Amino acid sequence: MKVTVRLQSEPFDAAVEVARLASGRTDIGALVTFTGVCRGSEDGEPIAALTLEHYPGMAESEIERHVAEANKRWPLLGVTVVHRYGRIEPGENIVLVVTASSHRQEAFAAAEFLMDYLKTYAPFWKQVDKADGKSWVDAKAIDDTAAERWSVSRGGHEAAE
What we know:
The protein is of the alpha+beta class. It has one domain (2-151): Molybdopterin biosynthesis MoaE subunit (Aldehyde Oxidoreductase, domain 3). Helix content is 31%, strand content 37%. It has helices at residues 14-22, 58-73, 104-120, 141-148; strands spanning 2-8, 30-37, 41-42, 45-54, 76-84, 86-88, 93-101, 124-130, 133-136. The strands form two sheets. Strands 3, 4, 6, 8 and 9 form a five-stranded antiparallel β-sheet that branches. The chain has a four-stranded mixed β-sheet with strand order 1-5-7-2, with helices on both faces. The chain starts with a strand and ends in a 13-residue tail after the last helix.
């Protein structure tokens, strides 16, 4: 399985990343992409930017560990995860997840699994910059609930049959 995990401060081009993963491959039947984009508001208030911080080295290792877990659960042919850090302004890309498989069901499920992990458990911290100042963003119960569905002990999807 071809795996790319990259954390970077500079913008990325989702189409270029998809092409890198799929180039020359005839075994891929499905490519699922998810791109997270910085919104211009949070809780109804305009924002100037988000600042994302991460734990270098640990963040990459943890993402790679979850990519390996996704590959145990679904027969993947490739995964790309690109996550930005630093100052990100509204309209800019934050994160990209690309999953490749022979069939769409596995590619969709793996992409959702990885995004739920990134949103809830990856070692990133987000600060929002609004007109009244900066504040750290707290975890949201809705994200925790989404991630819990993948827990094997809670009946989440185990390795594909």
